[in-house]
Every structure is written in C-alpha cells, then in structure tokens.
Specification:
By secondary structure, the chain is an alpha/beta fold. The chain has four helices and five strands; from the N terminus they run αββαβαββα. Strands 2-1-3-4-5 form a five-stranded mixed sheet. It binds zinc ion.
Length: 166
C-alpha cells in the first residue's frame, strides 16, 4: 500500500464541505463578530433545515451571567421551542468553534443529525480534540461531523478578541 504524501497546504478545505456549508458558516461568523463587539467570546451557532434558519445565537454567558449560555445551547433551546419538539430532526448545526462537553452533550440529546464547525478547540473541544462525544458508539445518537470550514477566519477572530482583552 502506497503511503499518501502529506498535504502541502495544512489549511486545505475539508473534503466533505459543500457550498451551502460555506454560506452558513460565513453567516455564523458574522454573528460571532457581533458577539465580540458585545464583549462576548466571538462564537455563534446557526441551526438550518431545508436551506432555512431555524434558530441562531451567539455566546451570551457575559450578558446573561449564565455559564451555560453557549451559542449552541442557546440555539438548540430556541429551535426546539420554535418547533415545539425537542428532537431537531433533519437539521444541520453550524458553529464557529468546536463544541465543548456541555454543547456536544446537548447536540446528542437533541438528536442533531449533522454538525459543521469551523476551528478546533484544543483546550475544550469534545468533537475530536479531547474526545469525540458526537461520534461515540456507546451513546444512542451519532452525528455526521464536518470540521475545518472557514477555520482560519474563526481562529483569527478568536485570537484577535483575546489579544485585545489582554
Ligand atoms: Zn459549549
């Protein structure tokens, strides 16, 4: 078996990324930018079904004084409330940063079929970095996961945000 040469471009686009993934991640990144302006860590999530937004949110932990008010959790709650059903069937959840343990747990509980995230979070990411709760065979739900969509834009935004606060 031939050894595959490593990619010369470490920021190559993920192979399963679609045009609509780029569209919605770009949309989420604009929302994340607003979070940063509001003094929140610039992370946002958008839940999409059939090409339409079901819900969208950015981090609100500072604004709401709520440690659980991460973008994904706020968006999941809003989507479930809007449809009157806790199962978010046929949706894709876009988020600009790899989900943490709490958010990955909420995504599994909500039965979200597909998750697309931008940049990895080596310190808290539970969708491939530290663990992969979204694709654990022992749990009763597994998601399709695409990572690295517009990752560079998201990581630059986060880096600039934390640098400006120092
Ligand atoms: Zn989280």
């Amino acid at each position: 078996m031939a050894v595959e040469p490593s990619s010369p471009d470490s920021h190559a686009d993920p192979s399963d990324q679609t045009d609509s993934d780029l569209h919605w991640m770009s949309y989420a990144l604009e929302l994340a930018e607003k979070a940063g302006v509001a003094g929140e860590v610039p992370v946002a999530a958008v839940i999409v079904r059939g090409g339409e937004v079901v819900s969208e949110a950015h981090n609100r932990t500072v604004t709401d004084a709520d440690p659980t008010a991460h973008a994904e959790v706020v968006a999941i709650r809003a989507a479930a409330a809007a449809q009157g059903d806790w199962r978010l069937l046929d949706t894709t959840l876009y988020v600009t940063l790899e989900p943490c343990a709490m958010c990955a747990g909420a995504i599994v509980l909500a039965r979200v079929p597909r998750v697309v995230y931008a940049t990895a979070d080596p310190k808290a990411g539970m969708a491939g970095s530290l663990e992969n709760l979204l694709q654990d065979d022992r749990l009763n739900h597994r998601c399709d996961v695409t990572s690295g969509v517009l990752a560079e834009r998201s990581s630059t935004m986060l880096r600039d945000f934390f640098r400006a606060r120092r």
